[in-house]
Design brief:
Elements lengths: L8 E2 L12 H18 L10 H13 L4 H13 L8 E2 L10 E2 L3 E6 L2 E7 L2 H4 L8 E5 L2 E2 H8 L9 H6 L10 E2 L4 E6 L5 E6 L15 E6 L3 E6 L7 H13 L3 E5 L8 H8 L15
Parallel strand pairs: 1-2, 12-13
Antiparallel strand pairs: 3-8, 4-5, 5-6, 6-7, 6-9, 9-10, 11-12
Helix pairs in contact: 1-2, 2-3
Length: about 290
């Protein structure tokens, strides 16, 4: 089993009472990031460059960036040099909730060179025709692939080219921005009708998620079960699986599809796995 080493940098709030960070505070944060990577990054010994030298060379430009948002973007670009999908700057939402970073209440997926809506969580979008299966053509006047590459992939920590190409367009990643930002999104529905929605990101999340978006089961020919597990996150997660388990037991074979699983709580994965074997399962190990 492949082992995953997870490293998450959770920085404290970058502003206090509306005041911007000083150059000294920025330098301190860069130093903390440099130290955390040096002592806790799992692949530090195999880096093809000198991390200390990179941080030292990057420091003058980082502390001169105007505004905390630009500074955070700069830190993220520095993290990207590590080439690791689990090493990134986590943006903590603080203060006025109407300016938080959040996506539109919908999920998307990239299929080839096209991007489609997979779930809608807001009646405001649904009433304007946005539904599962709609294709996204443009966002704020940019072709959707160009938009994702320019505004999402440019800040994406990734270990592989294929992840860089697919991750910006999956789940809620594509439309994240300040929630008070108004965006124009052009869709094409399944009948071929093209229409545009213009809203900010503070519209309500008033449609409950489909439980099948996390986990779903169906019976195929020859009594073959097909279990889709799209996430290891969610409320009442173990109950979702428990509700399907009796049907799974009645099958003669089982396909488990996790192609769109973005990860989550490894304990949920352990729970599911424990139902398919009565033997001990070797687990991962970590140290710091």
């Amino acid at each position: 089993m492949k082992k995953f080493f997870v490293l998450l940098f959770l920085l404290p709030a970058l502003t206090a009472f509306g005041q911007e960070l000083s150059r000294a505070e920025k330098a301190f944060i860069v130093g903390r990031l440099q130290t955390e990577v040096k002592y806790n990054y799992a692949q530090y010994a195999t880096l093809p460059f000198d991390w200390d030298s990179l941080c030292r060379a990057s420091l003058p430009a980082l502390v001169e960036l105007e505004g905390d948002e630009a500074f955070v973007d700069g830190l993220q670009r520095l993290c990207m040099k590590l080439g690791d999908g689990h090493t990134y700057i986590y943006r903590a939402n603080m203060g006025d909730s109407r300016t938080w970073i959040r996506p539109f209440p919908m999920t998307t997926v990239r299929v080839g060179g096209r991007v489609f809506v997979t779930e809608v969580r807001s009646s405001v979008l649904a009433q304007q025709g946005v539904a599962k299966g709609c294709e996204i053509l443009e966002i704020d006047g940019e072709q959707v692939l160009d938009y994702g590459r320019r505004h999402v992939a440019s800040q994406l920590s990734s270990s592989t080219p294929q992840w860089t190409e697919i991750a910006p367009f999956n789940s809620f990643s594509l439309t994240k921005a300040r929630s008070d930002k108004v965006s124009r999104i052009t869709f094409r529905d399944t009948a071929g009708k093209v229409f545009t929605v213009e809203e900010d990101r503070n519209i309500p999340w008033d449609i409950e998620p489909d439980p099948g978006s996390v986990m779903a089961f169906e019976l195929l020919e020859n009594n073959v079960g097909y279990l889709v597990i799209n996430s290891f996150m969610g409320s009442n997660y173990t109950r979702l699986f428990d509700n399907l388990y009796e049907r799974i037991l009645e099958t003669d074979a089982l396909i488990v599809d996790m192609r769109n699983n973005g990860g989550g709580n490894s304990g949920y994965a352990d729970y599911i796995m424990s139902h398919f074997t009565d033997r001990p399962v070797r687990m991962g190990a970590w140290s710091s």
